[in-house]
Amino acid sequence: IGDRPVAVQGCAASAGEIMACLVRVPTEVVKQRMQAGQYGSLKEAAHTIMTKEGPMGFYTGYFTTVMREIPFALIQFPLWERMKKEIGDWQGCPTSPWQGALCGSLAGSFSAAVTTPLDVAKTRQMLGQSSGGFATTVSEVYGEGGALALFRGVGPRTFWIGLGGFVFFGAYEKSTSLFRGSGVWG
How confident is the model at residue 1, as a pLDDT? Predict the structure, then answer.
């Protein structure tokens, strides 16, 4: 798949997600709590979280977020590269940027759908709507409505990640194409 083995892609994506979550999770905790009406301002949110929960309060749901992001990346990136390879082989030439964008959109949509239960658990933890860790949260959500409860929000999540994937992978593919065409990049 591409120029890199899947294991290398997976390890690199996982390491990147672990580091990105160090920044992403605190902003998500504050954002989600403000959206849920728990705080009226950024200042109030930051002050209250720090006072009541300490610095680790900003990392509520960190491990669950990492547990969502790593499978997402391990599904999305190899799937994207594989679809591009199959389309390129079928048509006898490499995929165009718009084809790469479409592959990225489909890969992102699929990855979003299958990792939705992890996203539901992460959101519950960040909003303080869980009495425990990952397994407890999943069990609580399942108890509310079975497997369907674990997929709450799958439609909007799949849509926005698919749309974002089209833009992200499209921009990546077009930029790569332009750099290669200019001779700047191999």
Answer: 43
